[in-house]
Specification:
Layout (H helix, E strand, L loop, with lengths): L17 E7 L10 E7 L27 H24 L24 H8 L3 H18 L6 H25 L9 H23 L7 H6 L2 H17 L9 H39 L1
Antiparallel strand pairs: 1-2
Helix pairs in contact: 1-2, 1-3, 1-5, 3-4, 3-5, 4-5, 4-8
Length: about 290
């Protein structure tokens, strides 16, 4: 027996904290050889070593090794947090002014100054735009802090972020922008949250990933946050008599019409996330060539 007590190991060889293993090529996206001899973290007592397809949780994902991935994710997080916090501050200070609501039962009927601060912040945090920007900020902050760490929560947050911010951009352009008069600070913050953040988040994901995080289960789970927002917006609207968007106004359009609109938006959102999933699969195949 060697002096260091390791049976069957040549004297002088050290593998503290590491074990030799053969990792299937499926654990490495973009690698076509049958197998690769490498070293992986040794399993602690009661802990299993990662299997094929779980490599991204250990930083093995090919796209996380791409130059600039962490910086790109950080840029998205910083830009999104900055926009969200700026809009929150402007609402708190009543800096948008008395720009009036666009409907009888739509947010915007709060007292001026500090007297209406609580109502303005409550309204602000009830917009789907703010929910989607906040989810993008959190998802990309996690990516920037720990690149390649793959958990179900992280994958679901990323899928929700892509889904929600894309729907935000499209619904704003199709349903809201044509009837909205933008003045004052809104000239800056509206395009910031509805155009810049969506374009930046999607572009960075297309270029830097991470790849392989989307699946049928993740796409379906990504619908939970939009559903929670619908429940919140409708329950709060019934209580305060005002809604974030005119097309949700049940007092004007009725629950039947509003329900049809919401179902259409949800179906559209599910289709959007499914498209992201298909794009992810295509990009992974292209990288594997």
């Amino acid at each position: 027996m060697p002096r260091d007590g390791r049976c069957g190991e040549p004297p002088g060889r050290r593998t503290t904290g590491l074990v030799s293993a053969t990792i299937p090529a499926t654990a490495y996206r973009g690698v076509t050889s049958a197998s690769m001899n490498t070293r992986v973290p040794a399993a602690a007592p009661g802990q299993n070593l990662p299997t094929a397809g779980e490599g991204s949780a250990y930083g093995w994902s090919a796209d996380e090794a791409r130059p600039g991935a962490r910086t790109a994710h950080t840029v998205v997080a910083v830009v999104t947090w900055a926009g969200f916090l700026l809009v929150t501050l402007l609402n708190l200070l009543d800096a948008y002014g008395p720009g009036g609501p666009s409907g009888e039962h739509v947010y915007g009927r709060n007292a001026a100054g500090w007297a209406g601060a609580f109502g303005r912040i409550a309204d602000h945090l009830s917009y789907f735009t703010e929910w989607s920007n906040l989810v993008v900020a959190v998802a990309f902050t996690l990516l920037a802090r720990q690149p390649g760490k793959s958990t179900l929560l992280r994958r679901t947050l990323l899928a929700s972020a892509l889904l929600m911010i894309t729907v935000t951009a499209i619904v704003y352009r199709v349903l809201l922008a044509p009837t909205q008069v933008v003045t004052g600070w809104s000239v800056l913050t509206n395009p910031w949250q509805h155009i810049v953040v969506p374009a930046l988040a999607v572009l960075v994901w297309l270029i830097w990933g991470p790849r392989g995080w989307l699946s049928t289960g993740v796409v379906l789970r990504a619908m939970v946050l939009p559903l929670l927002w619908i429940v919140w917006a409708m329950v709060r609207g019934a209580i305060v008599g005002a809604y974030p968007y005119g097309f949700l106004d049940t007092r004007t359009y009725g629950y039947g019409s509003v329900s049809v609109t919401l179902l259409g938006i949800l179906a559209f959102g599910l289709a959007v996330d499914a498209i992201f999933w298909l794009v992810d699969i295509l990009l992974r195949r292209l990288q594997a060539r």
